[in-house]
Amino acid sequence: MTALTAAGLLMSLCTGFAEARSTSPASAMRADPSTARSVALRHTGDPEPGVVPETPTRSRETRTPVDIPADVTAGIAVFDRLTGDFTELHQADRPFRAASVVKLLLALDFLWSRGPSYEVPQADRVRIGAMLSSSDDAAASHYWATGGGSAMITRMVSRLGLTGTAPPPAAHPGHWGYSATTAADTVRVYRYLLDEAAPPVRDLVLGSLRRSTRCAADGFDQYFGLPSAFEAPGTVKQGWSGFTSGGCAGSAVSPAHTSGGAARTGPGHAGLADGTLLDLTSDALHTTGTVGPDDRAVVAVLTLHPDGTPYGTAYSRITTLTGSLDVPGAVSPSGTRFATWGSGVRVRAAATTSAAALTTLPAGVHVLVGCQQQGGIVSVPPYVNDWWAYLPQYGGWITNVYINSPGNTLPNVPRCP
């Protein structure tokens, strides 16, 4: 970052302070590694390092081609409920460990035999709501223990005609997050909920997914993928496993999220009952849900990242990937995405360090910037800056010091009115 005047620098040393716990300032000028070495579903150009432009509307003629980083494994399925066709399919039948996406099946299994009245105790309504909207692991473990564990998955496979979903490997029978699923099966689950489930079941499950929270129960920011790539998705259910820092809610370092309390097995795979090998080592990040008027599109993007990938890097990769898909009815948010640097970068209620901290960012995540303005001076030697960026998806501000861009101001970003 360029410096302010000498007077501004002197003032900053008295009043400014770092907005992040610890980092190497030199990294401010490094390009995000996720922009390099990618394998495309369709040809795409390389973005400017640190900047990912967004388009305000979606169409098959103007959308950005899909680009999957070379070291990311992805299973993708996008179904258009209006036409009855898939608009995207990529390794849609490849099995992934489901992580918290399996919570959809746990909820459905609990509700399945409660018809025709589908009376649900209030305690279970609250528990299911927390399990689905804020991805509460304790709630999932409760239903796993009371519902028969792996038998819940076996029952739902039969009921919904799922072809790639399976209980956890025999070596990990108690860990619900190690159940296997596919992008195609995930779409099938949503289609059942939307078009076939009894109204009380549909209202409870989809109603909870429509209230998805930014901060999950374990402190991870779960607005990657669909919530960041598109304006107001209809429903959202996310999954993550293996990461150790998720930002959010003032906690820059969250406990390792390993799905169902499972300890990581080390390098290798575990076999499912049919002999299929399931990767339990790579870090998993999944985004699923519905987009568009009347939940027109059903989207499932399941991804694996090299073990040790920073959460912010995976978060940004899956968001960029999801935003490039052909998703009928989707609208992209306006603004420009920039890479950030630093750990524990705070999003504040106003453009000053004295304003309340709304949350923290996952380290190194890309953020969507709507506009910028001058505010309180922040000094992170050797950088000094009084410009701040407004993040519409967070409803708050971060100092430009922690945005990867040369100069105090961000290119092609308007001044806030």
Structure summarized in a few sentences:
With 417 residues, the chain is of the alpha+beta class. The protein contains nine helices and 19 strands. The strands form seven sheets. It has a five-stranded antiparallel β-sheet with strand order 5-4-12-11-8, sandwiched between helices. A three-stranded antiparallel β-sheet has the order 2-13-16. Strands 17-18-19 form a three-stranded antiparallel β-sheet.
Describe this structure in words.
This protein is α+β, with helices and mostly antiparallel strands and 417 residues long. The chain has helices at residues 6-15, 103-112, 122-133, 137-147, 150-160, 183-195, 199-209, 226-229, 311-323, and strands at residues 38-40, 51-53, 67-69, 73-80, 85-90, 96-97, 180-181, 235-241, 269-271, 277-279, 283-291, 297-305, 336-339, 346-348, 357-360, 366-369, 371-380, 383-391, 396-399. Strand 14 and strand 15 form a beta hairpin. Helix 2 packs across helix 5 (150-160), helix 3 (122-133) crosses helix 4 and helix 3 packs across helix 7.
Overall form: elongated
Strand content: 15-25%
Q: SS-based structural class?
A: alpha+beta
Distance between the termini: 24 Å
Number of H- or I-type helical stretches: 9
Backbone CA Rg: 22 Å
The order of strands across the largest sheet is: 5-4-12-11-8
Q: List low-confidence stretches.
A: 1-18, 21-63, 250-256, 261-267
Q: Helical content, roughly?
A: 10-25%
Integer average pLDDT: 84
Number of strands: 19
Q: What are the secondary-structure elements, in order, as H or E?
A: HEEEEEEHHHHEHHHEEEEEHEEEEEEE
Summarize the biggest pleated sheet.
Answer: 5 strands, antiparallel
